[in-house]
Design a protein that fits this description.
Layout (H helix, E strand, L loop, with lengths): L1 E3 L2 H12 L5 E6 L5 H13 L2 E6 L9 H6 L4 H11 L3 E3 L3 H4 L20 H4 L3 H16 L3 E5 L3 H13 L5 E5 L19 H6 L2 H12 L5 H12 L4 E10 L15 E9 L2 E8 L2
Parallel strand pairs: 1-4, 2-3, 2-5, 3-4, 5-6
Antiparallel strand pairs: 7-8, 8-9
Helix pairs in contact: 7-8, 10-11
This protein binds adenosine monophosphate.
Length: about 280
């Protein structure tokens, strides 16, 4: 496995694959890796000839300075995990390498209603930062396939929309959520939960699963109300729980209309913000 901190070295390395028409897969991450990240690496290894992972805690997607500061950083462990997984190259740039002064990295794409609900509502500016870093990293790596987790479902739709709007030659592939034994979706932020809160946080997945049962019994808004009510527990502060159309992210009017349905939720527990979702249909 090769480690690159500079764009020039990475590009040279990738050229040897590209010149032989070998497909390049790319998995962008913010580090503090876990099995969820590794599942994306494995998916890339299975369907491309060269897998590049990146580790970059992107400052422009954090809407709170304290969250950026507290974000876990475990580079040595991350590199060992990527090496063991069989990743071909890791890109670990400095902020100056990604955002050199004088380079306009803003992304002129209208995300419309996709960026407004849920994460867009509670984390203003977050998706502008995500689109900016993903576009910049795609420009640097030039992958044939980009692997994104269903865990950040809205982010996946935003990136897919951007790739289509800008006619990027990169296929955006969604990978299923990897969970801890308790059902809690794996997340770098879980490291900041103590053992007690980690256990307690599993309630989110249990309630997501319950909505699958409530679907047949109650209308969508009532299911959302019941879910939020059940999440109101000591030490837990739910932010949203929404049943949305899986393509438009708009609230579903009923369960019978065509199209996919995704239950998406966010909550705070012990000072940590967690998100999760379940594809219901
Ligand atoms: P992050 O390092 O949190 O920016 O995540 C990097 C990528 O890993 C994103 O595409 C996430 O959606 C994905 N990811 C994060 N957690 C999981 C998980 N539990 N299962 C699958 N993919 C995940």
């Amino acid at each position: 496995m090769y480690l690159f901190k500079k764009i020039s070295g990475l590009r040279l390395f990738l050229e040897s694959y590209r010149s032989k028409n070998r497909a390049i897969g790319f998995v962008p991450t913010m580090g503090a890796l876990h099995e969820g990240h590794l599942s994306l690496i494995k998916q890339s290894l299975d369907s491309t000839q060269c897998t590049v992972g990146s580790i970059f805690v992107n400052p422009t997607q954090f809407n709170e300075a304290a969250d950026l500061e507290k974000y876990p950083r475990t580079p040595a462990k991350d590199l060992a995990m990527l090496y063991k997984a069989g990743c071909h190259a890791v890109f670990m740039p400095s902020p100056e390498e990604v955002y050199p002064s004088g380079l306009d990295t803003s992304v002129a794409v209208d995300f419309g209603a996709l960026a407004q609900p849920m994460e867009g509502r509670f984390r203003p500016g977050h998706f502008e930062g995500v689109a900016q870093v993903v576009k910049r990293l795609i420009d640097i790596v030039g992958p044939d396939k980009l692997f994104m987790g269903q865990k950040d479902y809205q982010q996946y739709l935003i990136v897919r929309h951007m790739a289509q709007a800008l006619s990027l030659p990169t296929e955006v592939v969604m990978s299923p959520i990897v969970r801890e034994k308790s059902g809690l979706a794996m997340s770098s932020r879980n490291e900041r939960l103590g053992p007690e809160n980690r256990e307690k946080a599993a309630v989110l997945f249990r309630i997501l699963q319950k909505t699958a049962q409530w679907m047949g019994q109650y209308p969508p808004r009532e299911v959302e109300r019941k879910a939020l009510q059940e999440l109101q527990q000591p030490g837990i502060e739910p932010e949203y729980f929404e049943l949305v159309d899986g393509s438009s992210l708009q609230p579903i009017p009923d369960f019978e209309s065509p199209g996919s349905i995704v239950a998406c939720a966010a909550l705070w527990i012990g000072g940590v913000r967690l998100i999760d979702n379940l594809i219901l249909k």
